[in-house]
Input
Amino acid sequence: MSASLPGSRDLPASRYDLSTYWGRVKQSAEIADPRTLFVSSAGLENAKNLVASYKQGYAQSMTPELWRAKQIVDSTLHPDTSQPVFLPFRMSCFVISNLVVTAGMLTPGLKTTGTLLWQITNQSLNVAINSANANKSTPLSTSTLVQSYFLAVSASCSVALGLNALVPRLKRLSPASRTILTRLVPFAAVASAGALNVFLMRGEEIRKGIDIYPVLSEQEKREREKSGKEVESIGKSKKAATLAVGETALSRAAEDEMAEEEAGDDAPRLILTTSIFALPLALAVFPQRQSIDARKLEGIFWEKGGEDGKVEFNRGI
Output
């Protein structure tokens, strides 16, 4: 993202008020805008240069062209690595990547084998998206990534298939109750499996912690701009990682709920609703750049907070 580009001058976080939910919804809609997928490599380099020119003090104020460049950078580059996220796994490609999977899972008359194959496909895609957009301050080794993949897919598919198979066995329920559960269980299966997928794929962050940074005051930001120094991590926090992964899991569950409530048996309506509403609404539930009182983390960070004793970290998406 733009924060990782050269220059000590802070770029405005957004043109919207990120302290409000609707401000974050508008910001998330920009990050998830599929039109950014069609930006060429040259276009991305131009956007990076424009953003860097502001951060290095050559551009004096934000212009429409600069805001567009920031949108391209934020939707393409990972905030921790400064590298482009693989195109199919970007948030701007999330809906498109899920079109085939959604259509497959909604195919009428699927048998157990078909349901299992589509669940594996769905959870494999979730694994890829969760891994590509996770906090990268605690990278996974290849062996850990492979182990996490098989564990996440097998556990998620077991939950999804198990819940779907549960309702027909509840013989004591009235037909009306069974009908209600039949409509609710698919959502519960997908939502719980998706949340479990997040925890399993990002478990290394919880075990080892993620980088946290002091929140700077306006004066400290101005001094940093003059000195050109980077803000250094004050350490890795397991509590911050648990919060980051937990919030991401909840936002994924919220996304599944919004889509399920609108879908019914109308696949085109599901796809349209997910495209326009569900993803930005779910991404905006929690801020991506999260700040928290240092005293809510491990004791070693209590006296290391910045402005108002707060620290911040990248939650991931």
About this structure: The chain has eleven helices and four strands. The longest strand covers residues 210-214.
